[in-house]
Fold each of these.
Amino acid sequence: MRTQQERVERALEQVLPQPALAPGKLHEAMRYAVLGGGKRMRPLLAFAAGEVTHAQPERVVPAALAVELIHAYSLVHDDLPCMDDDDMRRGKPSCHAAFGEATALLVGDSLQSLAFQTLAEPASLTDSNRQLDLLRILAMAAGSRGMAGGQAIDLDSVGKELSVPELEFMHIHKTGALIRAAVLLGAGCGEPLNAENSGKLDRFAKFAGLAFQVVDDLLDVQGDSATLGKTAGKDAMQHKPTYVSALGEVRARELAHDLRSEALAALVSLGPEAARLRELTDFIVMRSN
Amino acid sequence: MRTQQERVERALEQVLPQPALAPGKLHEAMRYAVLGGGKRMRPLLAFAAGEVTHAQPERVVPAALAVELIHAYSLVHDDLPCMDDDDMRRGKPSCHAAFGEATALLVGDSLQSLAFQTLAEPASLTDSNRQLDLLRILAMAAGSRGMAGGQAIDLDSVGKELSVPELEFMHIHKTGALIRAAVLLGAGCGEPLNAENSGKLDRFAKFAGLAFQVVDDLLDVQGDSATLGKTAGKDAMQHKPTYVSALGEVRARELAHDLRSEALAALVSLGPEAARLRELTDFIVMRSN
């Protein structure tokens, strides 16, 4: 896992414009927002899903980077004062706290463009039609019917009590869409999957994404800011409905384990090629930040 | 021109998600920001450039929409309080004035995703490798080395006096990059151009883009808010360096005409196929909003 995280870090280093290029401050801020932090969960999922379809890891790199760049942009925009207004991210001042709001806005905008630029690189896959498929999957996952839409639902839910199905609807968009895209893009870099196995991967991604979010909600309550690298206790402070507010800590923890089991069950027939996806499922549920 | 504007309007209508789809408010705000306004200058340029390469107009539609969606997103983000802080756009309250800042942020983000999704639609071109080329051109034009980078340079220049070459550097990024992309994408939907003619189109796009900006600067001084559909006199109020502040109105108007001549000169040998690009050049320089 460490090896792949380092591979991602080096590749992000290369794909992000150098601060020596104009506009230097924007490029510096983009690098600040992306490099030197983060678990790289989505790239790891992309590589792991690529193993299921025997994708060469270097073929998965553009997809892994693109998903991570979309994720990084979303964090920068989510932290802005008009959204979650958070000054801390990955253990350091958030992008707007360090570079100002206007620059942070442009950092997010530019990272989104860079994600699509990276995934459109020539010959990142031998089959350009499939490359276009991946671009479309990523764009849909990022947009108003995916991640950005999830943020909008999140905004509208502040101060409300949501039922578990309503929470699920929100998170399937907000975090689930991009996690699903990471899995589909990674798998899409290898041999074509039949419809049955493709459905299984999709099912895995859904449960893994939800498990990720339930654990996020738990960590917000149980973790401390130093370990999390971001402000702990924020959900309650901002009156956001979470799995913990809906279910309590004990049942939320049980739900995380149930979702882990469902995710693993979806992988059963995929054989040893899915070993790393299984590892990551455990990592998602056991993580402390 | 009217026909093509209507074609663009109808196609935008279709590509934007309906407000009946969740999240409804976000979709409503996206439609508000994009539909029913705007000159559709960039789509018109894309169609006109497509005529040079004998592209079928319906083949140009996805490229024309994608460029317009990027433009629309940039207007929504530029109007935000942390940027230009403008409450009026296209003759009505700007997106954040109508829907709130957080929603406007997500509108811009979602429109950017939708632009790439639209351009990645299957079989929008018969040659998927060229479609990938167009996606990359658009991503680069939108990102930190293009439009968003131009915004960053613009931010840094507030309160400064810029020389004409410095202004040119800023605008080649801020407005020029996307206008160039409109021309290259439109032309890219037809028969391949040889390097010489491709260079000429590129040269045309550069001068047309600069002419567009010089006229924008003039209109900000000479126009009224009702005709412009946005707040007049804003550049001076915000201490932004412009061609008018650098050159005065008379010489700025002369520069616009010189740039028009340069743009037209670049088209000379392209024959009758470039007729509509010539018309648009005049429209760019003669427009009143």
Amino acid sequence: MTNFRLNIEYDGSRFSGWQKQGNTDNTIQGKLENVLNKMTGEDIEIHGSGRTDAGVHALGQVANFKSNTNMNTDEILDYLNEYLPLDIRVKSVEIAAPRFHARLNACSKHYRYTIDNGRVANVFMRKYMTRSTDTYNLDAMKKAADFLIGEHDFKSFCDNKRMKKSTVRTIEKIDISYNDGILTMDFYGNGFLYHMVRILTGTLLNVGTGKINPDDIPDIIDAKSREAAGFTAPPQGLMLVEVTY
Amino acid sequence: MTNFRLNIEYDGSRFSGWQKQGNTDNTIQGKLENVLNKMTGEDIEIHGSGRTDAGVHALGQVANFKSNTNMNTDEILDYLNEYLPLDIRVKSVEIAAPRFHARLNACSKHYRYTIDNGRVANVFMRKYMTRSTDTYNLDAMKKAADFLIGEHDFKSFCDNKRMKKSTVRTIEKIDISYNDGILTMDFYGNGFLYHMVRILTGTLLNVGTGKINPDDIPDIIDAKSREAAGFTAPPQGLMLVEVTY
């Protein structure tokens, strides 16, 4: 068995997210496995670095799968891109170490949330940004972001109420920038809980508009309650940029 | 009557082009006039700088219309963007000189044709580029482009066989560049005939793949026959970038 590593780009707009959902399958994982099964005649299981929600995009999702195929990596790349829909592209196929696992070995993830905040909405990137005409106080947002950096229990930023595993995660960095009416928030961390980036985004946006005081962020973290944090920002503005190992 | 000038951005993918077509109206001009009629209660006629074909996009189409409205330019901008579909945005509304006419006064137009020529197709810009995995000889294309610069009778590059008006136009500049698998052709000229940019593009692509010798371009121009030139490149890779006055 060879262990293959894929780097995948997708427009999540019309998919029900990364993770396979039984037979009613409109997921990125499902589309990939279907093509891999057809290609190999095997029953392939593909492991993504993590799930992305319905409507969330990826510039660099990483996944691995094991197969007995005799095809080389170039042939696999071409086969996958021939049979996958145009809103999913495999950017590279590499042979990975036998024990490489895209989820278990992921060290850090970079997510980007983009808000189209210009006077007039952008036409060409409209499906990859969330539109808002609110006025944001960037200094307040940056101050709030500083409180989120480091290792914390992010239970307040998790939409899975029945989460039994640890909700402790480390956020390495949050970059907030504003150029030509585009507000960009870059999140780097060792792992993110269900909806965590979208709740972090919604909370920072609430700080930006003055609904939440940046100095309240430590209390919001300490509350360990979803109700304490801000809203869950919509999926279309979110992009999984890169996974590092 | 006040003469208003609009700067308009649109994703042409789902439209039948700029120019209004009677009642079965799925055109950019038609959408704009419908909203303007509703806004003013008048029967507005809007003049674009030129038609764009079905499927062609614009970053900066210019148009003008006359109205007795008492609304100011900010109010018009907001009204239009509230009622237009999201794939058409009005980027600015200005008061123009009474005799300003978007088509008759246009001095120069800049069109861009983009080919996605990378090993793997781009997901996010897929609707705004034409996909091709051919290998292009850029030096040959640039040599061919040099022959096209200047004032010529471009009848060979016009898909309107019944064209009765002059087919003489001036191409000021053609820039051909290649970065990260993206082939970009920028055309600047005082006016373009029906399908002219797409036929220029198809001809240059045919030169790039060796089907046409760059030294044959003067003969192709001289032939004054559509059959002499290359193919009509598909619309989705074409963008009207800017109109100058």
Amino acid sequence: MQLQAHPYKKENHCDHYTHELIFKNLYIDTNQELIVYMPASCHVCKSEGFQALTRLVVSVNGRSIITSLNITDDGLLQDGEISLSKSAAKKLEVNEGDKLNVTHMDSLHSMSHVRAKLYGNTLDQQAYTEIIQDISGEKYSNIYLSSFVAACSGDNMNMDEIYFLTKAMVDTGNRMYWGKGVIADKHCIGGLPGNRTSMIVVPIIAALGITIPKTSSRAITSPAGTADTMEVLTNVNLTMEEMRKVVEKENGCIAWGGAMKLSPADDIIIKVEKALDVDSEGQMIASILSKKVAAGSTHCVIDIPVGATAKVRNMDAAVSLSLRLKEIADLIGLKVEMIFSDGNQPVGYGIGPSLEARDVLDVLQNKPSAPTDLKERAVRIASEIVQLVWNLPREGAHDLVIEKLKNGTAYKKLISICEAQGGFKEPQTAKYNFTIESETNGIITSVDNRKIARIAKLSGAPDSQEAGVDFLVQLKQKVEKGQPLFTICSNSPGELNYAFEYYKQNKQQILKLSYE
Amino acid sequence: MQLQAHPYKKENHCDHYTHELIFKNLYIDTNQELIVYMPASCHVCKSEGFQALTRLVVSVNGRSIITSLNITDDGLLQDGEISLSKSAAKKLEVNEGDKLNVTHMDSLHSMSHVRAKLYGNTLDQQAYTEIIQDISGEKYSNIYLSSFVAACSGDNMNMDEIYFLTKAMVDTGNRMYWGKGVIADKHCIGGLPGNRTSMIVVPIIAALGITIPKTSSRAITSPAGTADTMEVLTNVNLTMEEMRKVVEKENGCIAWGGAMKLSPADDIIIKVEKALDVDSEGQMIASILSKKVAAGSTHCVIDIPVGATAKVRNMDAAVSLSLRLKEIADLIGLKVEMIFSDGNQPVGYGIGPSLEARDVLDVLQNKPSAPTDLKERAVRIASEIVQLVWNLPREGAHDLVIEKLKNGTAYKKLISICEAQGGFKEPQTAKYNFTIESETNGIITSVDNRKIARIAKLSGAPDSQEAGVDFLVQLKQKVEKGQPLFTICSNSPGELNYAFEYYKQNKQQILKLSYE
């Protein structure tokens, strides 16, 4: 049968053809990946040939996002309904009952640059800018992100490309302006457990009259990040405006940087790098420097811990990284100085927010019980900042720093900063704790940092601020049978039990002793 | 408070510590990626610090799979409940109410090889074997798969590595043995729409007494695959045993290869390559040759269509690919011959299963209306197979092939094969069709294959067998105003409407004419 007449009524079918579907919330958290859920019975999936993982543009009222499709059935969704993962629903700002539109995604132009990079080509500024814009616009699926990370891994980027990537990252995020000539900052590459130098360095530098608006991160996989530890003492959830007020009053702050969106593409890339456990020196340099420039910093001291289990394994790698950091920093207009430090063991005693905050206060209050390694690291970094900013000789800078620490000015400054951020609170102690004692006499020959961190997490850190591990001994220390090695702290008997059970199952590897 | 006594009761907590959770089916299809769903309130997530995308081992009764975590809330799942994506639930063989165990995944050793490859190292046989075993064991997340594809993309693999990868793929899948000296096969790289030569080549070759057990694929994104088109005429869902019986009786078969698991790792890798749109010559060679060897083939003709919009863009690339295919085939013990063919336009008239099956039958029945391009391609491939297997000169082989086609033996053989596979059915025609006529006089200067394929899919192909496009003209052909250009065929007015609406919106690009 051949229809001679027009085979359809145009107006009637228009809505149908544009694929309007009703939003129903299923509240599925897929982390950052944007997922759209549609039922197998959906007429749009059928007619368009959408399959699971097809890349789709979902739009409502002029806003749109790019998603990957997962297909549901059996009652979760009916034909005519559609759902989004939590991150996608939030980004698109949709509510139950909204009418969403779904279309096939055109191929992403910037992926042609990623493919070119995979095939061994060198990319220019425009290519990196397009890639980073699409990543920060959340247009890349995890598969795309992974291929970009892979393309840039190892030594695959030349210095020009690292600069282009850094610049692209700065240009796509928010940027802070402080209206002052000198803005100091510090950074530590591949943080060590317990290494809370920022909370000592910032008050010293601020007390010296130098502006240091520090943003820090929360723990992702560790028992505490600097933002978690600072949160024991005060509020860290500052808006940019609140941060500005604190810094105007006190010269410094320690705020959570997560909400600032200084380099949104980098935040996305880092999660995939972590999942792949792939290092890219180029991406690391771009990541560090772009965030510093976006935060408005002009002078930055970068601490590079070097050690077999640290991010940077040996001095050769540290020197090479440091030269490249310096070259890119010069190009982008940031003054930097690098410090190489010992990356072989945790810093201080406490592992977990409140225990680490206690160590920080002990150092600032010059208590005899304060951990000397944490103090020495903080003094060294603060001295380097003073040298860099004021162009002073080493001893002069060191003396100024020591003075602010010794006479209690730095301590008072931390308290003032806390007051300005919302009020100072003393760290509390956990409700339950259990001390592990040495079963023999001996000398401590190795400590498994990862397993110690695991115990701290099982005990409840960082969500439970007081939870964690108080590590009472050090490498090469002589211990006697019955001597306390470390204390597990927790606010619930159940979590204390999890942590202790894990210790029991792994105690051979956690702490090794040589017998005398 | 320091507890001196043991702070927990061991036996009571053991079940809790091993994380037993009750399976509840949510029926979410995530394609091949294995996803586990746990609620935000889950005590196991909290205590272990699991976050969305954490890699977890889920096990039941000694079976286990590796999954990525998505977190749900608000009623989909309660604390104590757990769900899996459809593919994961199927693989783990779980039922509603089963008790599942969840633990953190140890890092995958084979990913260290992928990282080494990304850093520019060359991998050995053992490394490729470990990677391919883990991929076929479905231990790789999409992020991991993407990094492996990226690491091997472009020209990154040397010939040794391509051989190692091919061998690893053969060794990890099922393998067919036919107990005969010569098993013929054919393959086409980057299929063209309508190019159903297999359905003509197989009966010719089988009629000549050469064994040719052909496995074919279904459409993934196209309007029809060879398995879909063969399914118009007969059953293609054969088990290995059924396939063996058909081949013993008729010398040949055309079965769906999807269920055979000849190279399971390759099936997984190809989906990610498609999503990335990344070509890796090494992976393509390994993919093609491993499946042929696993299928028990000894002699294989490979058709390489060359054209600007084909997979292989120009003759230089075709020659280079062909030399590498030959070298690896020699190493792995497979005799191959390559053909270069025109890859610039669709083959035959019909696009869609039944329309293509009609073209195939027209060729085999020597109808004057049969598409000559399809016939010529099939004859050329069949002749090459005869030359390769029997070591005949070109004309001798060609004459034998033409004879079987001309005298109707090949047609009878196809009918016999269909009968052996479950019975022959004639192709049917669609209920509705609409013919697009030329709006002017002119010469056809370009055809957009992708958009034509899109119209065929919107009309219902391949699920609706009779749906599709019957393309009535060719490049460089002179047409007059009112002359039929192509017919859209569909079994429902709604789908015909979708297809026509799409045509209307895109007609400028679909077919271009130069005016006289």
